[in-house]
Amino acid sequence: MKCKSDLRRAVLSRRDALFLTERLRRSQAAAERFMSLPEFGQARVVMLFVSFGSEIETRPIITAALARGKRVVAPRADSQRRALIPCEVRDLDRDLAPGAHGIDEPRPHCPSIDLAEIDLVAVPAVAWSEDGYRLGYGGGYYDRFLPEVGRALAVGLGLELQVVPGVPQGPHDQPVDVLVTEERIRRFRRRPPAGAPGN
Questions:
Q1: Dist CA 55 CA 46 (whole Å)
Q2: Which residues are 88's β-sheet partners?
Q3: Contacts of residue 145, Cβ cutoff 8 Å, sequence gap at least 6
Q4: How far apart are CA 6 and CA 179, in angstroms?
Q5: What is the chain's alpha carbon radius of gyration, rounded to the nearest angstrom?
Q6: How far apart are CA 42 and CA 39, in angstroms?
Q7: Quick one: DSSP state of residue 75?
Q8: Cα maximum dimension of the chain
């Protein structure tokens, strides 16, 4: 198995090599699968990352979720604490601006929300293993965040070319419950859908 830095370079190179039209086509297919999840349909509050660079395009999902009457939150990075702060977004143009890492994130006027309100979290990565573990960008933000929203369903969202046989794992690395790409939906652990009795 490649070391983390080598694997990151290899997968990012593959992803960056996609033509924009092809990435958008695959993103649309993945978005349709993602929004077909029953957990997404039943979720009242969804946390969606805002794509940057050659990542899967998530803005159409944010727009669709808002149109369906869902509350949408996006992560704001706290670089000092290396933490994510979920903040509500109601308008993509008005509420997002580049943050400390150059990634669009909620502006200061967007209110933070209680972690217990989040039903589903879409999780980005550089690469995914076949068993649901992720290789992130190296900051550890989501590995620290996911244990704090244990009730929420963690859904990895990416492109099939990012899925590899395995990724290096550390003791604090957090797997996802579901992995969605343009080609398939992989489920690793079952949780009651958001809003179900006992949830």
A1: 19
A2: 73
A3: 75, 83, 84, 121
A4: 23
A5: 16
A6: 5
A7: E
A8: 45
pLDDT over 80 at 34, yes or no: yes
CB–CB of 162/126 below 8 Å?
A: yes
Every domain of the chain and the residues it spans: 4-187
Given a contact cutoff of 8 angstroms between Cβ atoms, the answer to whether 127 and 135 are in contact is yes
Mean pLDDT taken over the chain: 90
Task: Name the token pair of 10.
Answer: 């290899």
Pairing of strands 127-129, 163-164: parallel
For residue range 8-22, what is the model confidence (pLDDT) as tens digits?
898 999 999 999 999
Kind of pairing, strands 45-47 and 71-78? parallel
Q: What tokens appear for 169 in the block?
A: 């794992």
**Fold exhibited by the domain 4-187:** Rossmann fold (3.40.50)
- Give yes or no for a contact between 96 and 105, defined as CB atoms under 8 angstroms apart: yes
